[in-house]
Amino acid sequence: MPAQRNNASDAHQEIKSQPGNPTDIENRIKSIPAGRLAWLWLLLGFLLLPFTLFQTVIPLAAWAAPILLLRFARTSRRALVALPLLFAAYTVGAWIGFRGAGSGDLGLAILGIITLAVRGLLYTLPYAADRLIGPRLTSWARLFLFPLAFTAADWLLSLSRVITSTGSPAYSQFDNLALIQILSITGMWGLTFLIMWGASTANAVWEHLDAGRPARAQALTFAGVLVAVVLFGSARLAFAPPASQTVPAATITLDSAVSAEANRLIDLTFNQSTGAQRAAARPKFEATVDQLLERTEKALRGGAKIIGWQEGSGLVLEEDKQAALDRVAALAKQYGAEIEVSLALLTRTESQLFVRNQSILVDSSGAVLWTYDKTYPVSPAEAYFTIAGPGKLPVAETPFGRLSTAICNDLHFLPLLRQAGRNGVDILIAPYNSVHPWESEDAVVATYRAIENGFSLVRPAGSGISTITDYEGRILASQNFYTASDGILLSSVPTRGVTTIYSRIGDLFAYLCVAGFVFLAAWAVVHWKQPRKGGSG
Are both 350 and 491 inside the same structural domain? Predict the structure, then answer.
């Protein structure tokens, strides 16, 4: 019997040592020094980054990439080598995600590279904090250091007029309606925090497994919060869906050929055009309004009571504005509808700022309820020639609910859109004119603002995806500009919105993340410890 046991044991050891055996592979991987494996984590994380933003978004990639990159930051031998490589990974990864956005203008290309580099730098700083400060904190404090720092960096980037919130990892989760309901409480910052908390938790588990000490408490805490967030969202979608009456709404877009014919007549000297030059251009400009009104009437005959035109689609000379509005008023009175027209109003002035990007709401009586100028023209191109508005969203009481508007890039600026939430807006009309590669992200950004502030959304988009969305983020209807046959999207939208916590507390969650990060950094400096073995805290 002893001999048989020895023979069985020998056979088992022989099997374990055979090439290709899972145990053998595991042992081989464990035998590789952590410093060498770090390069693999960097490569895999970098390959995932382009799929976390802009065009081709894989939601899971946004969770996996920071796990791998944080692992690289913690296990690489030298911080002075690791941190510049993380900066390069984020900058180049965003550039790849940015593919196809070239305008041919060298100045704009250089500015684009600079903005991507600034973004890469801000997103590298949380890894620097984790690598340099983290080992001097307790394991629980280090668990929250990285997500607090990353959320603070994400929020700081959103304050920039050039970078805005574009490319935030929070936008990668748009497909998970239950998860993104947290926007109604924390804004987009709660999503950023969750994703990065997942990265630090995964690394804590990873390190403790290597040390033979499972990090059950850290893992269970994160899992519990994540499940609670999803359950909250699921309950909100299931038990508190829109229950108000609905109103038929339509988005109107302009044929690209008609738009191109009109726009080619405008250059940066048009602000000083002569009467003869303006008269020669007038027929092409009027053609834009003619087609938009033709499509508007078709939508009205189809039952639409709220109409929105794509951003700046009606090219109108300043002296012709009233005539165009009179035509709109006639339709609004005839069909008893609220019509928002979006004009590129061409003024005559000595100033280089000569275009007014306006949205004008005409009610069912033919009266103009608001004239809104875009608050944040896109920098630097549009901002070079467009007169910016004062930054106050209009509000109008109508038979179909309380309406408001904001234009395209405005929706990247969270404090501006919170005006709509605080004013109890039910439906926001948001004219867009998207450009590559932001077509899909533009739709996501607008949907996030709707969930955050409790309004439904009517969003006509030139060169992009027009959407009609309720205040919980359900896409009620959508239309691709390039495949639409008639430029009309029609759907019913709720006439009542809801009050959200976020619309009342604003970016409080982001402020708390900034404060939390500063506190932990200060704590590490005041209680300067020697790094713990393995740097895991």
Answer: yes
For 61-92, give the DSSP string.
HHHHHHHHHHHHHHHSS-HHHHHHHHHHHHHH
pLDDT of residue 14: 53
How far is residue 75's CA from residue 391's CA, in Å, rounded to a whole number? 47
Region 249-277 average pLDDT? 95
Give me the residue label for tokens 């925090």. 193
Q: What is the spatial distance between Cα 389 and Cα 253, in angstroms, rounded to a whole number?
A: 23
Tell me the average pLDDT across 98-119: 77
Token pair, residue 350, equals: 């000595």
Predicted local confidence at residue 34, as pLDDT? 62
Of residues 434, 388, 419, 441, the one with CA closest to residue 504: 419
Domain count along the chain: 2
- Pure H helices in 159-187: 177-180, 183-186
- Contact between residue 136 and residue 522 where contact means Cβ atoms under 8 Å apart: no
State the DSSP code for 406. -
* DSSP three-state, residue 469: strand
Identify each DSSP E strand in 415-474 by its residue range: 427-429, 432-433, 456-459, 461-462, 465-469
Separation of alpha carbons 349 and 108, rounded Å: 26
Answer whether residue 401 is part of any domain.
yes
Cβ neighbours, 10 Å, residue 65: 27
Identify the domain containing residue 514 by its residue range.
Answer: 31-240+510-535
Tokens of 521: 């950094």
Q: Are residues 80 and 221 in the same domain?
A: yes
Q: Is 417 within a domain?
A: yes
Between β-strands 461-462 and 432-433, what pairing exists: parallel, antiparallel or unpaired?
A: parallel
Q: How far apart are CA 535 and CA 145, in angstroms?
A: 14
Phi and psi, residue 14, nearest 5°: -65, -40
Secondary structure (3-state) at 528: coil
- pTM, full prediction: 0.91
What letter represents residue 221's amino acid?
Answer: T
Same structural domain, 266 and 189: no
User: How far is C-alpha 245 from the geometric centre of its chain's CA atoms?
Assistant: 29
Average pLDDT score over residue span 127-152 = 96
Instruction: Tell me the two tokens of residue 414.
Output: 């969270």
With cut-offs at 50, 70 and 90, classify the pLDDT of residue 536.
very low
